[in-house]
Amino acid sequence: MGQTGTVLAGRIAGRRAGIGDPRALVGEMRRSLLLVPVADERLWSARLSGVRWIYGFTDEAALTRFALLREPGDQPMDYVALLGARIVDEVVPSLAEPAGLAVDIATEDGSMFFPPVVGIVPEAVAVDAGAAAEGAGR
After folding, report:
1. What is the C-alpha to C-alpha distance for residues 132 and 122, in angstroms, rounded to an integer?
2. pTM, whole model, 2 decimals?
3. pLDDT tens, position by position, 54-88
4. How many CA atoms within 13 Å lie on the side-chain side of 59?
5. Alpha carbon of 85 to those of 3, 6, 32, 101, 129: distances in Å?
6. Sheet with strand 79-83: strands edge to edge
7. What is 28-92 written as a DSSP string?
8. 62-77 as b/e: b if 16+ CB within 10 A
9. Residue 66 CB contacts under 8 Å (≥ 6 apart), including other chains
10. Angle value at C-alpha 37, between 11 and 33, nearest 5 degrees
11. Percent of the chain's residues with pLDDT above 90
C-alpha cells in the first residue's frame, strides 16, 4: 500500500488519543491513497443517521479485517485505490445525499469518520455550509 496509509493511520491514532492537529489529520487524509471496496462497479458505502459513509482503508490489512467481518472465509474483496481528496472532492459531491468518508471502520480503536462538513467536503455539499457562512459574517 505504501507509506501514505501508514502515516494516516498514525495520525488517526494520535487524534483518538487526544493529540495532534485535526487540520493535519484532514490534510493527511486528502493526501493518502485509500483502498475502497467495490461491488457491482460501485463503491461500498452505508447509510447511518442520514449520512452516506464511503468506506476507505489505509492498507490491505485493514481492508482484510473488514472483509472477514462482512464475509468470513477466503473470498477476495475487489477494491480501487483512490486519493482521499478525490473521494471527498469528487465522489461525495456526485451523490445525491449528505456523504462522508469512514476510514478503517473494522480496526478496533483505529477508525475515523470524516463527516460532510465545511473543511472536509466542498462547501456546496457540506451539511453545515449555512452555519459556516453565517459564522464568517459575524
Report:
1. 12
2. 0.88
3. 999 999 999 999 998 877 666 778 999 999 999 99
4. 13
5. 17, 17, 8, 10, 19
6. 42-43, 33-39, 79-83
7. HHHHSEEEEEEETTEE-EEEETTEEEEEEBSSHHHHHHHHHHHS-SS----EEEEEHHHIIIIIH
8. bbebbbeeeeeeeeeb
9. 37, 55, 57, 77, 105, 106
10. 40
11. 72
- Three-state DSSP state, 112: strand
Q: How many angstroms separate the first and last alpha carbons of the chain?
A: 45
> Closest by alpha carbon to 60, among 48, 77, 43, 45?
77
Cβ atoms 25, 7 nearer than 8 A: no
